[in-house]
Specification:
single chain, alpha/beta, FAD/NAD(P)-binding domain, 5-stranded parallel beta sheet, monooxygenase activity, Putative flavoprotein involved in K+ transport
Length: 435
Amino acid sequence: MSASTTSSPLPRHSVVIVGGGQAGLSVSHGLQALNIDHQVLEKHQALHAWRTQRWDNFCLVTPNWQCALPGHPYAGDEPHGFMKKDQINQYLAGFKAAVNAPLREGVTVELVQPVAGGFLVRTNEGECLAEQVVVASGGYHAPIVPRLAERLPAHIQQIHSADYRNADQLPPGKVLVVGSGQSGAQIAEDLHLAGRQVVLAVGDAPRCARFYRGRDVVDWLADMGYYDMPVSQHPLREGVRDNTNHYVTGRDGGRDIDLRRFALEGMELYGVLEALDGDTLRFAPKLGEALDQADRIYNGINAAIDKHIAAKGLEAPAGGVYEALWAPAEERETLSLADAGITSVIWCIGFAPDFRWLNAPVFTGRGHPVHERGVTSVPGLYFIGLPWLHTWGSGRFSGVARDAQFVAERIAHHRAHQAETVSAASAGRAETSLA
């Protein structure tokens, strides 16, 4: 029997936060400061994605100084370095301990839906009521694997980037990496440095320099105000949320990722993977175009930095324009799996959102939530931790604190408004009874 059908009243919370990652814990930090009762529900363990969905050599692609979770800024001795996987998890463990959220782990939220006075929250451990709900489960839920994967020969090992750990987990032979966003480019590099033969299907991901004119590009962009620009002022507006992240790496102290250099060193580059006919992979003949566009964005970012330096009259080492080290002699559109000796495939084409458990009219046809800085059209329902929720840093350690504080304050405002409404209604009933 459902808890909602028993005679006992359901447990009630002012706020339920769904998700115990850095976003959910950040909102808890804000609510505790405002003395607002809440519960954080996490289906695994708090911050588990950082422990379970990163490869062994994973490191941050943004400098450590940008790790600025609420009340827990980076305090190490390498602010311009890039924490590795174990260091990131140590930093996050410290954040979890500092927040000390009212957290329940191992609790799967199966349904959230609006009801009178708030929301019904159904979990694998029962039901409760919440006056307000914060969805902090992120937007990367279902690994994307194309249907053509079903037709690959059975002997070829297939994994998603979320399951990649190191080169040794793959069988001998060539590895096909599909996708060249941040994960795809870094995994291809990881395999390449491990001495594996890699075939990379290149998409339309942009790239940027790691260092330019004497500083990390992130430092320059911070000075230029890029990380404070709200999505409402971005030239693409909400469309920027669909953009692929620039590929670059913090590995070995940080460097560019240049796919053209990889090609000179033996990596095989193709265009976007489009189809599979029997044993033959088919690619879009647009490799050269993709590489050229990535370089245009790379040079465009550097040119913006040049303009900033000139406008401010700053002293900095001379800049320059990247010139291609390599270009494909021709567009290769087909590749035989057997002839190439491909024995494994890593799908690095991202994740799809999965909010089927949230029964509220706040989604686009593609399943993405509609919101303004995390506030939805359903009173009392919020999102946090999504890419470009408000700024570039919204889905990262650098910007989630600001978003969490905003959401916490909106929650407090909503509670105050509800209290005023109830008080006014009570006063109205009292006047009516005296009439």
